[in-house]
Amino acid sequence: MPHFINHNLKVAKFRSKEICFFFFSKHVYIWYSTSRGDDVMVKRKPQYVKIKEYIIQNIEDEKYNENEQIESEHALCELFGVTRMTVRQALTDLINENIIYSVPKVGSFVCKKSRFKSFDGLNSVTEDCAKKKEDCTSHVVLNELEEATDLMKKEMALEDNKVWHVKRVRLVNGEPLCFEDDYCNYDLTGDIPLEVSSTSLFNHFENDLNLHIAFSDQQIDAVLAGEELGKYLQVDPVTPLLRVLSITCLHNGKCIEYGYTYYRVDKYTFNQVAYRRK
User: What positions does the domain HTH gntR-type occupy (predicted)?
Assistant: First the structure.
């Protein structure tokens, strides 16, 4: 049982549970002591965090649009019953996270949205866009059968020396987001129709071919766009891109896809939750 200073401790009974409210340094800690003897210590969420979550939720629900002004500091103070300092702490955090931006003597506005890809799961671009209710289309540059290079044979452990090569620009709401350069294991996929290459390869593998994707080994680095990618992604050739190498395998360990995806950094950001292990 935690030890508290008596004058900071308030006790109440509710449905056979003893609830202790402990006030310390402007925060409220709640300690539950149940009739079974298990103790739980909970810290109440700070007000500035609630304000951040409120603004982020409104952005996700499209109550605020890109470059649209959000409520004033005064309005947020009235809404949450807090001081201006608390509101400013929330707004400063959102500015630092590139969610909003501030115009002096005018107010705070919603930044142009970046699309997030999370590394805590394996999703295709199509699936990421579907979660955000965005329209994902493809401009297919190349869709043909090729002889595998020595690198392909080695990296994909091919039984057949052929790969199906797909190059395509992925567009979200009509704007180029990334360029995919994929080699598919022809022994597993066979010919890939053009209409499939225009949509989701993962969906084709799993739902049409009944293959079970297990994992993707991914490596990330940065490269300059160059002339070809610059043209397809509508950026200057010296613009940096995030390049992701993906080696995607089935449950039986066979590699089904090997390729690079080049992302525009102004359109896509990556989010990763890192767990500490010893």
Answer: 45-113
